[in-house]
Specification:
- The chain is an alpha/beta fold and 380 residues long.
- It is built from 14 helices and seven strands.
- Strands 1-7-6-2-5-3-4 form a seven-stranded mixed beta sheet, sandwiched between helices.
- Strand 3, helix 6 and strand 4 form a beta-alpha-beta unit.
- Helix 13 packs across helix 14.
- The longest helix has 31 residues.
- InterPro entries: Acyltransf_C, Plipid/glycerol_acylTrfase.
Length: 380
C-alpha cells in the first residue's frame, strides 16, 4: 500500500508529468472543439454574449488545470498583497521567472481576480501548439511577433475590439519579454552595461516600449482602472519549461505578492511611465532578493496556503475545482470514443479541424477571424 509520500513521489515522476501534460493537452483540444466551437454562431448575432460565454468556458478549463495542480499534484499557493476589484479593468505586469508563470497565475486569479476576464500577451510561436493553439486563439489572446510595426497593429486591433464590446479586460503583460534563464540574464547584463544600468540577479531589465504603448492606449480610451504589479517567486523548486512538467518537476509552492496602483496614481507621460516601470523592476529585484532569503514575501494581507478567510468562499472554490475534474475527464474519455464509434462525430471532428486550419490560413488565427467578422457586421 502506498504512503502519502510515495503517492506524491509518483506524481512528481516522469509518469506523473506525462499524465498531467496529456490531460492538459487533450482537455484543451477536445474542449475547444466540442465545448467552445459550437458557440461560434452566437458571434454573428450577439458578439458581446459570445465573448462572455466563450471566456467563461475557457476559464472553466483554466480551473481544471488549477484543480490538477493543487488538488492532485499538491502545489501550494501563498498570496500576499492586493486583490483585483470585481469588474476592474486592469493591466497585470509580472516578472517572468519561468515560461509557465502565466499558468500558475491562475491560482491567484481564481481567488483574487476574475479568471474569465484575463487576456495574455504571448509569443506568436505558442499559437502553433497543436490543438491548444486553437483554444488560445479562440480566447482572443494577443500573439506578438517581436516586430514592433506588426505588434502595434495586433495590439490595437484586439484592444479596440475588446473595448468596443465593453469587455472589462484583465490584461497580462510580461515586460521582460522572456523568462529568466542564465542566457537571458547574460543578455540583460549586456544591456545594463551598455546603458550604464545595474545588473540584476533575479529579474531582467524590462522592455518598456510595449508597456508604455498599452498603458497609454488604455488610459487615453478610459479602459483602465488600475495597474497590478505582480511578483512571483518559487521557494522550493520550479518548472522552468514544459520539459520540466513532462519530467514531473513541479514546484512545491508558488508565492505571489501583488501591489495595486490606481489610475489616479499613474504617471501621465510616456517618459514618466517608462521610468515608473523601470523603477518597479529595480524594486522587484530587491524584493526577490529578500524573498529567496526568507522563502516568502512579507506578511501583508496573507492568503496562506491558498485558503480564503471566508469559509463559505473556500467551500465554493473547492466545489468548483472538484467539479471541473470529472467534467473534463468525461470530455477526454467520451469524445474520442464517439469519434471512433460515430460517423457523425468523426465527420464533425474533420470539419472542425479543417475550420481552424482554414481560418488561420485566411485570417491569421481564430482571434482575427472573430474580430474581422465583428468589424464587418457589428462595429459602428
Amino acid at each position: 500500500m502506498f504512503s502519502l509520500d510515495s503517492k506524491m513521489t509518483w506524481k512528481r515522476s516522469t509518469l506523473g508529468g506525462v499524465l498531467f501534460v496529456a490531460l492538459a493537452c487533450l482537455s484543451y483540444l477536445l474542449g475547444t472543439m466540442y465545448v467552445v466551437t459550437p458557440w461560434f454562431p452566437l458571434m454573428l448575432v450577439r458578439p458581446a454574449w459570445y465573448r462572455w460565454v466563450v471566456d467563461h468556458l475557457v476559464a472553466w478549463y483554466w480551473i481544471f488545470l488549477v484543480a490538477l495542480l493543487e488538488m492532485v499534484y499538491g502545489i501550494k499557493v501563498r498570496i500576499t498583497g492586493d486583490s483585483i476589484k470585481p469588474g476592474e479593468r486592469t493591466l497585470l505586469i509580472m516578472n517572468h521567472r519561468t515560461r509557465l508563470d502565466w499558468m500558475f497565475l491562475w491560482m491567484y486569479l481564481i481567488r483574487r481576480g476574475q479568471l474569465s476576464k484575463e487576456k495574455i500577451i504571448l509569443k506568436n510561436e505558442l499559437r502553433k501548439i497543436p490543438g491548444a493553439g486553437w483554444g488560445l486563439e479562440t480566447a482572443c489572446f494577443l500573439f506578438i511577433t517581436r516586430r514592433w510595426e506588426e505588434d502595434e497593429k495586433i495590439m490595437k486591433k484586439i484592444l479596440d475590439y475588446l473595448s468596443s464590446i465593453g469587455h472589462r479586460t484583465q490584461l497580462l503583460l510580461f515586460p521582460e519579454g522572456t523568462d529568466f534563464t542564465e542566457r537571458t540574464r547574460q543578455r540583460s547584463d549586456a544591456y545594463a552595461e551598455k546603458n550604464n544600468l545595474p545588473k540584476y540577479d533575479y529579474v531582467l531589465h524590462p522592455r518598456t516600449k510595449g508597456f508604455v504603448y498599452i498603458a497609454e492606449k488604455l488610459i487615453k480610451e478610459h479602459n483602465l482602472d488600475a495597474i497590478h504589479d505582480i511578483t512571483v517567486g518559487y521557494p522550493n523548486g520550479k518548472a522552468q519549461t514544459e520539459a520540466d512538467l513532462l519530467a514531473g518537476r513541479f514546484p512545491e509552492e508558488v508565492h505571489f505578492h501583488v501591489r495595486r496602483h490606481p489610475l489616479n496614481t499613474l504617471p501621465n507621460t510616456s517618459g514618466k511611465l517608462e521610468q515608473w516601470c523601470t523603477t518597479l523592476w529595480a524594486q522587484k529585484e530587491l524584493q526577490l532578493k529578500e524573498f529567496y532569503q526568507r522563502k516568502k514575501f512579507p506578511d501583508t494581507n496573507v492568503l496562506e496556503g491558498g485558503t480564503p478567510g471566508d469559509p463559505l468562499q473556500e467551500l465554493k472554490m473547492k466545489v468548483v475545482l472538484w467539479l471541473s475534474i470529472p467534467f473534463f475527464l468525461t470530455v477526454i474519455l467520451v469524445v474520442p470514443y464517439l469519434m471512433v464509434t460515430s460517423t457523425y462525430f468523426f465527420i464533425s471532428a474533420v470539419l472542425i479541424c479543417a475550420f481552424y486550419i482554414a481560418q488561420r490560413a485566411v485570417y491569421g488565427g481564430a482571434e482575427h477571424f472573430q474580430i474581422d467578422l465583428y468589424n464587418t457586421f457589428h462595429r459602428k
